[in-house]
Design goal:
There is one protein chain. It is globular, with a radius of gyration of 16 Å. α1 (about 20-35) runs parallel beside α2 (about 45-55) and α1 packs parallel to α7 (about 170-185). It has a single domain, classed as Rossmann fold (3-Layer(aba) Sandwich). It has helices at about 20-35, 45-55, 70, 90-100, 110-125, 140-155, 170-185; strands spanning about 5-10, 35-40, 60-65, 80-85, 100-105, 130-135, 165-170. β6, α6 (about 140-155) and β7 form a beta-alpha-beta unit. The chain is an alpha/beta fold. The protein is built from 7 helices and 7 strands, in the order βαβαβαβαβαβαβα. The longest helix has 17 residues, at about 170-185. The protein has a 7-stranded parallel sheet with strand order 4-3-2-1-5-6-7, with helices on both faces.
Length: about 190
């Protein structure tokens, strides 16, 4: 039987708060310990490498997806289970989505936001029904949650769209939610 996979969107920098890297590493450890494979952008920098290294150090499988031009800049992680090389960022995101059973957003910048928004939009348009989680480390996603509520209040986001994602505060809570979602999907 195929192991479940989760696509993690996260920063190529480490951010200013050391909790971001610490919680990313804890997430990676828990993914590996719960036999969940990691799909991510394939980089060897920032929060991205923290989660990937932790999965690998704990015996898990990590699949990176990276466009050739980023590989040429030598930011690709050298020790992945497998690195998929694409021709463009569009191909990268499509492949990451196709390989994944769920999505997680850890702290990150514009790239993380863009990937998260695309997964949310695709869910809203019923292009997928995969669970989406925000790991709200140190309240990082509080402004996003406020923005979402503002969009709902102003009539640009439907109230039911609050259900497109779930926010969790710890890696442990995230893993409980993921494993429950994977169990539910197996029995449906």
């Amino acid at each position: 039987m195929k192991k479940p996979t989760v696509c993690v969107f996260c920063g190529s920098s480490s951010g200013k708060n050391p909790e971001y890297v610490k919680e990313a590493a804890n997430t990676g450890r828990l993914l590996a310990q719960n036999n969940i494979d990691l799909i991510y952008g394939g980089a060897s920098i920032g929060v991205m490498t923290a989660v990937a290294d932790s999965v690998l150090e704990n015996g898990g499988d990590v699949y990176g997806v990276m466009p050739q031009d980023l590989v040429n800049r030598e930011v690709a992680h050298p020790d992945l289970t497998r690195l998929f090389i694409t021709n463009s960022m569009h191909e990268r995101k499509a492949l990451m989505a196709n390989l994944s059973d769920a999505f997680i957003a850890l702290p990150g910048g514009f790239g993380t936001y863009e990937e998260l928004f695309e997964a949310l939009t695709w869910s809203q348009l019923e292009m997928h029904n995969k669970p989406i989680y925000l790991l709200n480390t140190a309240g990082y996603y509080d402004p996003f949650l406020a923005l979402t509520e503002h969009g709902i209040a102003e009539g640009f986001i439907g109230e039911s769209n609050r259900n497109l994602f779930k926010t969790v505060d710890t890696s442990e809570e995230l893993i409980r939610e993921l494993t429950a979602a994977f169990q539910t999907r197996k029995t449906v």
